[in-house]
Each structure stands twice: as structure tokens, then as C-alpha cells.
Amino acid sequence: MNSLKTAFQNFRKDKRATIAAVMGLSMVPIMGMSGAAIDFGRAIKTAQTLQAALDAATLSGAILAVRNRDERAYNTFHANLPASKLQGVASVNFHTTDNLTLGSIYYGEASITIPTAVMKLLGIDTITITRKASAQFGTGDNSCILTLGGELDLEEETTTFNGSPNVNLKGCTIRSNKSMKCNGHNTGAVASIAAGNIFNCPNAQPGAGTVPDIYSGLSANIENRCGSQSGNNSWTGGIQPTGPNFITVARNGYNEIHVCGNLNISGSGILAGTSATADTVIVVENGNVNIESDADITALRTTIVIAGQQKDGKITFPKGNGHKAKLTVSGSLADANPWAGIAIYQDPNSPDLVSASWGPGASLIIDGINYLPRTEVTLSGVAATGASNCSKLVSHSFRINGGVNLTQDGSGCKDGKVTQFNTWPRLLS
């Protein structure tokens, strides 16, 4: 016993023994750090594999006309993440949200829990890794009819074909940012596409995501010249009106005529004169555009702007049997004109949602874009494409009881400066 005690006392006094004890104790955190480096290195590789699979899956689901997009995304995810290369089972979820600027965004989130190799000795058995991805929908919009729906729920039907309408669409689709109902009518459209549901429409493609409103930004070009000034103003075809409620502003390459109050259009002929060799923009402030009974008006190279910030700003046609009126508008064309391609434009910032019922005698012939984002349109008359072979009707909602004959031809749309939203799916940062 005395010899063991003596040996222990000698060990305590020996500096080499002290160093050995310290080294022994220090090995615990060193081994822990080494284990952490090994396990975290594996985790980083797994995270990179998980992110790459999630990116590919999210892009595959963000293609416009894909049905069962979630199923497609799931399959792509697992195809790029073989279980043989992992020590855990990955889970993934996808969902869609709408963005006013970008349209529909497709989101993916994936996670996996992997076991540790060395850190379990320190009581850490697993590491959970989570990754996210988002992609802008690939949205190619070639619709002749596009309903935006605004604040309505996705299930609301914003495009409806009632009764026995005569619908003939060529080279274009029907598109709703909500839902649509065709009641079995064969519209001639290339496809019927909706972000929500589709009922009895040809070549139906539901759940396709929303189209962003690329025309809303044009409202920045609306300049208020009338203030609170208003009146009930008449404009007869072929006669340029004058008076305090008509204010002409010279722009770069075109004239802009501000009308203070209601604009009542009557008679026949060309609205802005005998010919149209340059663009004319008519801005109606504090009132409606009313097409009077028996009017037969042509507005060449003209954009009619219904300025917002006032109540009940819309375009009207005469109602009732025996009342007829025709308005033919071909949009502005000059490259320097911000309204190029636009035939009729309603300010999207208008505070009120208005209803416009165009009777059986109404006839609207459009070359270019008819943009009425704050109008619930009910058409019992006729809407058709003019000589350009390119027109697009955009509204809050569109209920069709009459005739719609719309065409989109590639060269016609190019010549008419008609632009539509078109992009490939892309990952967002």
C-alpha cells in the first residue's frame, strides 16, 4: 500500500503527468469538433442535393398549362433525389400564391432528417435540414378574352357564356384569373385556361395560375387637366368639338384631347376628322363615354382613356330592342406613344367596380386592346375584330349573351403594337 501511495504522489509531482492529464481532457472537445465537422460535412452535401432537387421540382410545377402540377413536381423532386444516396427520407410540399406584378408564384419546401455518425456520442442523434424554393410561372398569354376578377375568390366565375351566344375565336385562347363556365359552347378557342375551375369548356386547362396585369402601369401616363371641371359634352362624328370642356395637349407625335365630364358620341363618320394620319388620345375625366343611339363611329389610330378617381366611369351603349349603335376603334400606333396598341383603356385605379350592359343592338369593333379592369361587362350585342386581325378584350368579368368574333394573327398583332404577357418559368431569389 505504501508503495502505491508513493507512486501516486510522484505522478502528481511529475509535470509530464500533468500534461498527459490535460491532453486527455482536451481530447473530448477536439473529438467533438472533429465529429461535428464530419457530420456537418455530410449535412452540407445532403442540403445541396436537396436544394437542387427542390429547384428542379419547383420549376417543373411552374409551367403554365400543366395539369396536376403538384404531382409533376413531386415526381421531379424524387427523381432528382434517389433514396439510395440518402440516409433519411425527404418530405416536400408545394403551393401557389398570386402576385400582382409577377402573376402566380409556385413555392416548394423540403426537409430531411439524417442520423449523425460521431455527434451521437455527444447526445446529438440527428440533424434536420430544410430548404425552400420559389418560381415564377411560365405564362404565355395569347388570350382574346382575359378576365382579371380582381378581389374575387378563385372559385368565382368571371367568364360565362350564357344562352346561345355565337362565339368564334381564331388563333387565341380564353383566359380567366378566376374560374369560367362555357355551358358546353364550342368557342373555337385554342384552349380554355383558368386559374380556378372550368365548367363545360373546350380543351379545358384549370389550375393554370394567374396572368399579371401588364397594362395597369399605363395609368401613370394619365394626366388630370380638368380638375373638378365637368359637364355633359357632345361629339358628333367628323366634327372636332370646341369649348371649355375640351382641352387639347400636344404630345410627342400625337394630340391628347381631355374631355371634362361625360362624352356623348353621336352621328356617323370618323371621330377625329376626315382621316387619321397620326394618333389621337381622348382622355375622359369625371364622366362616362356614352355611344348614342344610331351612332356609327370610327376612331382611327385612337385611344380612348376613361380616367379614374371618379365614380361610375365606363363606356355605355344604348339599351333595349330597336336601339343600335356601332363603335369601331383602332388603337394608337406611333412608337413614341405610350398608348400604342391600346384602343380603349379604363383606369385600373378607379375606386368603383362598375357594370356595363351592352344591349342587343350594340356593336364594338376593336383593333388592339380593350382594357376595362374595373368593369363587369354583359354583352348581348356583338364584339369583333377589325381589319388588323388582332384584338384582345380584358375586363373584370365578361358575361356573353351575344356574338363574339375575335382573331389574333401574329403579324397583325405585331403591326398593331399589341403586347401580351409571355415568360418562361424562372427561379426567384
Walk me through this protein's architecture.
With 429 residues, this protein is of the alpha/beta class. The protein folds into two domains: 15-136; 143-427, no CATH class. Helix content is 18%, strand content 38%. It has a 21-stranded mixed sheet that branches. A four-stranded antiparallel sheet has the order 1-2-3-29, with helices on one face. Strands 12-15-18-21 form a four-stranded parallel sheet, with no helix packed on it.
* Total number of beta strands: 29
Structural class, from helix and strand content?
A: alpha/beta
How many structural domains can be distinguished in the coordinates?
Answer: 2
What is the helical fraction, as a range of percent?
Answer: 10-25%
The assembly state of the depicted protein chains is: single chain
Rounded to an integer in angstroms, the radius of gyration calculated over CA atoms is 33 Å
**Distance between termini?**
74 Å
Global outline: elongated
Q: Low-confidence spans: pLDDT under 50, at least 5 residues?
A: 7-27
Count of helical regions: 4
Query: Strand content of the residues, in percent?
Result: 35-45%
Overall residue-averaged pLDDT value: 87
Outline the biggest β-sheet.
21 strands, mixed
